[in-house]
């Protein structure tokens, strides 16, 4: 384009003002305005460049601020080149001004304040500049108070498309924020805040905050280093200004000011006394350091005077060759001297011995050079070891002559093979005697599978039996770390495929950092079964999961099963069309029930189609919910070809006592290899050239332990056979010490994650930058060196996953961390995992606690406790809440922890502990009506009820019932009142309060019940409870069935199971004993805690009513062994009263009397009035049968007043009246007895009339012994009276 050319019939080109690779800027005359303009023309025709140019034009067109270059128009020239016309500016760029020297503090603040004010306009419109730098800050006419921002070519609107090519970094490195340097896909205004900070630093100091010769070097500093403190370079700057600059340049965006508006405000407020005082507390950049506390032996070799270039080269080659032979790390110093560093062999003596041999070899190769050795603790940072060890080596080197000099520490570590002499200059090392050469071989040579043939045969026999006879089998292989469990597993899986190609093999693995996390182990196995990889898109994972489920699961159930298995495997499905999934996501317990049901459906379908081999590695790091899922599968699929093969350390029995003991579990305990097997392994790895005595020594020291043997073989293969370590831990340290410092730092970072880690996570701990981006190469190298192994799939999309080949390798690397690095590392790991959506709350809590981030740890312990409740792991839930409280949780968080702990304790029947949890609640800072407030009040009321203090509850119950509920808290309030109602009905006799609760629930829940099946179910359940208390068994049964239907609509199996107990109890009351038994056995299949207790007690009564007295007694004996009963006298009392009823039916009246009196004593002591009348009715019936009618009558007289005061009713009312009438009749009060019995008959018949089901009406009158006797006696006594 030439002078005189016209663009858009408006702009006449005058001259070229500047040009670059993509375009040019011209000064032009605007015919419309008559003034000069700057016209920017794009020559590059690349679509992304055109799009970016168009974005700049649209951004400028939308910005109107005196501090931003003014937009005129834009379009396309006749030649098809995009152009952008802007106001013409005369003056200079800030960069040109800084090239002449730094600004004053006042000038710097003014320039940046003006720039920030202009940029704030862009930020307020969602525009991020992304290229703020001195050359894009223009000083109009050179005036520092007239600032214009230029070049919005990289600016972006929110949600605008990206135009950056992969691997291309846009922006200016010295001014890029760390997240911009990392190529983060989403950038906000804080990247401009960082750039403004860099410009402000340069204005104040005259030098860039980050500088280097190469782009990558600059980026590394941006990511890893902090610039020097401002006041170090500009002492007259205020502390507040220094803090502001540091805040703007913070590595973490969260630690910076939010946008340019805050920057402008901060700069304007610098002189105010109290404004922005927090700016002095900016955290430093965080990354693991390079420092290590290591045991060192240093061989120092001095330089030779007047040495020519060729001699120097030859000497260096000779020394480096000798050092390499002995595995030393070499550092050359500026004066020509050399250091060979030996660290972390098996023991201090091994370190010293290796150093001594190296020094003697160097002395032979370079006889004229002085050589010295020093040993001790030294801190290793960057390239050189520092501390007293290096100082001592330097002192010895100056005195060394003909002999190698050693310090006292080194000499004390030598064994008898080293000949040392004390000479005039110090301790001289002369020689080593009787040195044996160790055989060498290549690493990675395949080794045979030896010494485990018998164990493999057992596993294959179990598989053959399962497949051939269609039976489920379980086997547990145990052994200490490194004993060969993983190798046996590999061989078993391979052989399984060879023997039975039709078998489906699913492999799950426990992890040390997430041990105990709900469903983690089972989820791992399912991910393997579904071939779901973390790097795949969510849609792809959903497709694979759904297709895999659809192979064998019935078509109507596929979506349901896939959705809940997706919750286990980190593949969540949308819940728009699933009321059950929506409901489960609001209720942890409900989610657990749905997951368990879906897993069982899937397993059943798979085993019907083909044999399944479920392999579970590291079971000792598994979780109770997964173990229970597997137990249920083994039980349900006992007649199907299912084999569960678990592998774990011996402590698995402590973690999961009696694991699968009821499923015929076989156990294989792996012991040491025989000497012959160990020798075969060693010879295979080392080859035929290995000396017999070397093999024998390795075998002897390994003592049959495969991992020890493997490490010893590696030591020999790597030339360290002469320094065989005394312990395996020392061998691990020796192996890690042979790696480079960068590799060790990568391993230390990886070890913080646990056994499994991710490349991006390691980079995060290393602080980013060039070095961190090399982490992938180091990890690959370490995998080649057999320290790590790369996983085929990853839990996190796009992140490469690795694991340590052995847990001891991880422990060794972890032990090398300094305490500050360990603390920092765990916090950084936690933050990284949160960023990547880690769903294992317990894992996150562990990391934050170890990272001393106590509040965040407590938050995640709360989440973990809820996950445990979801999986019905009550002990785990209590443990997590206690750990969260131990982190110093306060305020609302502390209250939530106590509530979750109380829920777990109450469900488990530990009422004493529940009381301590409820007593600790502090509701002062929680507003009435808040969901948390409602649950807390309910918890306190329930505790008061179960502890026998229900008369003190009026105020709390009134507060709960009268509080105004917000729309978002109605559901929780209904739930809270329902729990209170249940406690009042089951434990207490405060039915007046219970009725008020029921009425309030109806008022609150009815408007939302039509759309909320859980609330609807709660309302029906409460109605069923009320009707049952009134003695209306049929009405109670109908309401319970309606409740179950509502719960099943929502997929709420937990509440449905509890309500099915109500169905069973009503069937018992109506004499349908067989139907009640069937219902109860179904409920007992998958339930624990209070539901299991109530179900077994009711089952015992159903069995006794059908004449199965021995089975009834056996059932109650099982009840007595439950932890719930052993730990809670309330449940013990109920068990005794129930047993008394069974014993009475069998005619064992004396035993029945003993049990009922013991139960009465326990329940009376607890103050639980709910059982007052039932216990006395049972005892009175026993007394009448024992011909002790007078005692029975006195019992009735004591209870009569309380019974009338309570409002009468109850399902046992007629049995109570029958017993009283019989007692009256036995004592000669025939008229009173007859009148009472006739009234009772009329009541009985009136209740029978309410039963719509003819069969149930008949069984109510004929099958219930008390009812049949009422009718028979009434007829007989009427006849006698006539």
From TrEMBL:
Keywords, alphabetical: ATP-binding, Kinase, Nucleotide-binding, Transferase
GO function terms (MF aspect): adenylate cyclase activity; ATP binding; protein kinase activity
GO CC annotations, alphabetized: cytoplasm
Domain of life: Bacteria
InterPro entries according to UniProt: AAA_16, Kinase-like_dom_sf, P-loop_NTPase, Prot_kinase_dom, Ser/Thr_kinase_AS, TPR-like_helical_dom_sf
Domain Protein kinase: 11-277
One Pfam family linked to the record: AAA_16
Stretches of the chain forming a coiled coil according to its record: none
SMART domains in alphabetical order: S_TKc
Protein name, UniProt field: Protein kinase
Organism the protein comes from: Polyangium jinanense
Lineage, highest ranks first: Bacteria, Pseudomonadati, Myxococcota, Polyangia, Polyangiales
């Amino acid at each position: 384009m030439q002078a005189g050319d016209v663009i858009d019939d408006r702009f006449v080109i005058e001259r070229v003002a500047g040009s670059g690779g993509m375009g040019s800027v011209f000064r032009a005359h605007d015919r419309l305005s008559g003034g000069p303009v700057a016209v920017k023309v794009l020559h590059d025709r690349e679509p992304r460049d055109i799009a970016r140019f168009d974005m700049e034009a649209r951004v400028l067109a939308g910005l109107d601020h005196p501090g931003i270059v003014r937009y005129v128009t834009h379009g396309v020239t006749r030649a098809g080149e995009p152009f952008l016309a802007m106001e013409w500016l005369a003056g200079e760029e800030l960069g040109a001004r800084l090239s002449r020297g730094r600004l004053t503090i006042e000038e710097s603040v003014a320039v940046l304040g003006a720039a920030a004010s202009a940029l704030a306009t862009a930020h307020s419109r969602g525009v991020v500049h992304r290229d703020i730098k001195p050359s894009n800050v223009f000083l109009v006419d050179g005036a520092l108070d007239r600032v214009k921002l230029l070049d919005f070519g990289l600016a972006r609107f929110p949600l605008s498309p990206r135009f950056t090519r992969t691997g291309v970094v846009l922006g200016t490195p010295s001014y890029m924020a760390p997240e911009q340097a990392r190529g983060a896909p989403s950038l906000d205004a804080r990247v401009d805040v960082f750039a403004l900070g860099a410009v402000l630093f340069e204005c104040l100091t005259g030098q860039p905050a980050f500088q280097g010769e190469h782009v990558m070097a600059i980026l590394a500093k941006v990511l890893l280093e902090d610039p020097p403190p401002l006041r170090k370079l500009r002492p007259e700057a205020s502390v507040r200004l220094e803090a502001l600059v540091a805040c703007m340049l913070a590595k973490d965006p969260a630690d910076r000011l939010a946008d340019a508006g805050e920057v402008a405000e901060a700069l304007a407020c610098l002189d105010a006394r109290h404004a922005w005082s927090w700016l002095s507390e900016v955290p430093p950049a965080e990354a693991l350091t390079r420092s290590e506390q290591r045991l060192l032996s240093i061989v120092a070799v001095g330089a030779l005077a007047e040495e020519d270039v060729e001699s120097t080269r030859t000497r260096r080659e000779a020394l480096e060759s000798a050092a390499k032979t002995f595995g030393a790390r070499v550092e050359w110093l500026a004066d020509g001297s050399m250091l060979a560093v030996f660290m972390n062999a098996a023991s201090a003596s091994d370190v010293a011995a290796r150093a001594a041999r190296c020094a003697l070899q160097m002395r032979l190769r370079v006889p004229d050079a002085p050589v010295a050795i020093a040993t001790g603790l030294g801190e290793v940072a960057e390239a050189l070891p520092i501390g007293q060890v290096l100082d001592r080596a330097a002192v010895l080197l100056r005195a060394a002559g003909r002999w190698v000099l050693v310090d006292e520490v080194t000499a004390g570590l030598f064994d008898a093979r080293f000949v040392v002499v004390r000479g005039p200059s110090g301790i001289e090392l002369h020689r080593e005697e009787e040195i044996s050469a160790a055989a060498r071989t290549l690493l990675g040579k395949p080794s045979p599978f030896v010494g485990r043939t018998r164990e493999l045969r057992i596993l294959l026999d179990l598989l053959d039996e399962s497949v051939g006879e269609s039976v489920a089998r379980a086997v547990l292989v145990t052994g200490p770390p490194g004993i060969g469990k993983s190798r046996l597993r590999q061989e078993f899986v391979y052989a399984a495929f060879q023997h039975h190609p039709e078998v489906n093999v699913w492999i799950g693995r426990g992890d040390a950092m997430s041990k105990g996390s709900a469903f983690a182990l089972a989820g791992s196995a399912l991910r393997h079964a579904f071939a779901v990889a973390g790097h795949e898109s969510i849609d792809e994972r959903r497709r694979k999961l759904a297709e895999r489920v659809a192979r064998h699961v019935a078509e109507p159930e596929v979506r349901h099963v896939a959705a809940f298995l997706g919750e286990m495997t980190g593949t969540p499905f949308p819940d728009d069309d699933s009321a059950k999934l929506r409901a489960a996501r609001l209720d942890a317990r409900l989610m657990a029930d749905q997951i368990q049901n879906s897993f069982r459906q899937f397993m059943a379908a798979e085993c019907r189609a083909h044999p399944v081999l479920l392999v579970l590695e590291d079971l000792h790091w598994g979780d109770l919910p997964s173990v229970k899922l597997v137990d249920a599968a083994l039980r349900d699929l006992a007649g199907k070809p299912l084999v569960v093969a678990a592998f774990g350390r011996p402590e698995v029995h402590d973690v999961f006592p009696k694991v699968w003991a009821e499923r015929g579990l076989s156990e294989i305990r792996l012991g040491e290899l025989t000497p012959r097997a160990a020798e075969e392994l060693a010879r295979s790895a080392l080859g035929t050239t290995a000396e017999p005595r070397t093999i024998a020594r390795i075998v002897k020291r390994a003592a049959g332990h495969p991992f020890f043997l493997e490490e010893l073989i590696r030591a020999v293969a790597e030339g360290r056979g002469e320094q065989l370590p005394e312990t395996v831990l020392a061998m691990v340290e020796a192996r890690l010490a042979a790696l480079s410092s960068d590799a060790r730092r990568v391993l230390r970072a990886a070890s913080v994650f646990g056994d499994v880690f991710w490349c991006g996570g390691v980079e995060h701990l290393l602080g980013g930058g060039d070095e961190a981006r090399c982490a992938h190469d180091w990890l690959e190298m370490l995998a080649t060196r057999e320290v790590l192994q790369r996983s085929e799939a990853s839990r996190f999309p796009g992140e490469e996953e690795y694991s340590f080949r052995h847990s001891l390798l991880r422990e060794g690397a972890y032990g090398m961390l300094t305490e500050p690095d360990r603390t920092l590392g765990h916090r950084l790991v936690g933050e990284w995992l949160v960023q990547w959506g880690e769903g294992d709350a317990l894992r996150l809590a562990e990391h934050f606690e170890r990272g001393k981030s106590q509040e965040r740890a407590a938050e995640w312990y709360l989440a973990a406790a809820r996950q445990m409740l979801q999986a019905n792991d009550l002990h785990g839930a209590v443990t997590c809440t206690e750990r969260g409280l131990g982190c110093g949780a306060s305020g609302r968080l502390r209250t939530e922890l106590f509530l979750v702990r109380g829920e777990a304790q109450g469900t488990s029947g530990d009422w004493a502990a529940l009381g301590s949890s409820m007593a600790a609640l502090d509701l002062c800072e929680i507003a009435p009506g808040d969901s948390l407030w409602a649950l807390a009040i309910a918890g306190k009321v329930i505790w008061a009820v179960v502890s026998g203090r229900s008369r003190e509850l009026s105020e709390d119950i009134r507060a709960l019932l009268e509080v105004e509920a917000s729309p978002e808290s109605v559901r929780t309030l209904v739930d809270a009142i329902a729990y209170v109602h249940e406690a009042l009905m089951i434990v207490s006799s405060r039915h007046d309060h219970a009725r008020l609760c029921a009425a309030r629930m109806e008022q609150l829940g009815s408007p939302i019940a039509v759309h909320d099946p859980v609330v609807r179910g709660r309302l029906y359940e409460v109605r069923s409870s009320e009707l049952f208390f009134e003695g209306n068994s049929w009405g109670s049964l109908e309401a319970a069935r309606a409740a179950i239907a509502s719960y099943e609509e929502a997929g709420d199996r937990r509440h449905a199971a509890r309500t099915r107990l109500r169905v069973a109890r009503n069937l018992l009351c109506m004499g349908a004993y067989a139907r009640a038994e069937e219902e109860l056995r179904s409920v007992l299949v998958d339930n624990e805690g209070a539901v299991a207790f109530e179900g077994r007690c009711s089952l015992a009564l159903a069995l006794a009513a059908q004449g199965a007295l021995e089975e009834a007694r056996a059932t109650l004996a099982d009840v007595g062994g439950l932890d719930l009963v052993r730990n809670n006298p309330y449940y013990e009392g109920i068990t005794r009263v129930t047993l008394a009823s069974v014993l009475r039916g069998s005619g064992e009246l004396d035993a029945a009397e003993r049990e009922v009196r013991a139960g009465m004593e326990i329940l009376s002591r607890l103050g639980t009035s709910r059982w007052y009348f039932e216990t006395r009715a049972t005892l009175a019936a026993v007394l009448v049968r024992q011909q002790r009618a007078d005692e029975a009558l006195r019992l009735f007289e004591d209870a009569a007043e309380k019974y009338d005061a309570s409002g009468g009713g109850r399902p046992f009312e007629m049995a109570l009246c029958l017993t009283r009438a019989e007692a009256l009749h036995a004592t000669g009060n025939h008229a009173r007895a007859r009148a009472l019995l006739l009234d009772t008959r009329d009541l009985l018949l009136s209740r029978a009339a309410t039963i719509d089901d003819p069969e149930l009406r008949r069984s109510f009158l004929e099958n219930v012994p008390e009812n049949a006797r009422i009718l028979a006696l009434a007829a007989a006594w009427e006849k006698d009276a006539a």
